[in-house]
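Appendix B, record 7
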Amino acid sequence: MFSGMKRFIYRHRRKIVIGGLFSGAMYALYRLATRRLLKWQEEEMKELLEYSIRKEHFEKNERTCNQTILSLSSSLYNKIEELFDTKMIVSNLKSGVAEDKIALWEELKIIAFARLATLVYAGAMIVIMLRTQLNIIGGYIYCESKINSNGCTDSPVTISNEHQEQYLSSCQHFLTVGIEELSSLIEKKVRLVLENESLKKPLSLPDIERYFWAIQSSISSDVKNPIKNLSTFVLASSSTGQPTDIVPYNEPLLKNLWEETIDLISSSEVRSLGTSCVSRGFSQVMDRISEFVIPPRESSGDTAITQAVPSTSAACQKLLSSVTQTSVPNGTIVSINKSTIPMAKLIPIINGMSGSSACDQWMQDFINMRNLKVYGANVYEAFCCNTNVRFDNR
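Structure tokens (predicted):
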């Protein structure tokens, strides 16, 4: 039996050797594939876990950003209300003691439009700036926590609460000095567009829209365009253009933060984003105005409907308490372009749309803009992934 087995092995020795090598190779490949699969699964689980942690941190950072923006809306409104105060003008018109009421109406026209435009521009600017800053900080903080979680005690990026307060102090500068410069620029442009417009002129919705378009175009073409020169309105700068008033140069971290921030808010993407925010704000204004310009449908046999004019003061509400609109019969097609309202009746509507509730609504709408959310996510992703590399290179 053993001799027969020996002869069998001898006759098939090549097949046995080749089969053994093939089986060994297959087993080695199986072990290699198993190890690679386990390694890939571990990497996938690690990436998924890291993504979940980063997503949770980003969502928390977004909530903080939104709350910060909304908390500043009241301060923004109060400052603009202080710069464009119409209470005295409305009081003089109501009392009837004013000698030149036409001049007061003309001034009220300029102030009402300028205040509304300033709210739109200031809201867009502060939302963009805060979303940029807080997502940069969020990226640095996430990178720091990630490094520390890996057991490294010497993190290249450390942002203390003091650093964060110094970095975010630009908001206070904007709410004091920056908003004054912005309001002065916008008032000048509004006066240029509306100064010669008659109070008796009937205005359709396209006419009103052209006013806002002309104001926006005039501001955009100015060398001090606030969207193009966002950093000059937000940052306290020296005569050389450097933010030395609020950024100590003995703090390399703050210096790097501001350099990154200025690069971002000066980019073409942010300019386009700011223009979109402003256009969105004026579109919402037109939607609100259309409720007062387009005649409502006739109901219950009434021939006229009185709609209260939004107002920021009781005096203005009493002076111009309502806009009387003639209703149209049911079934009648109303042409939006043919519906008109006199400039004198449009002024209290514009004045009333600059209230604190309107400011909060604009802020909320800016926060919910998809383009702004995508921009904030891109900033956060860039800084949370590359912070340590960028810092080491410097």
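Remarks on this record: The radius of gyration is 32 Å. The chain has 14 helices and four strands.
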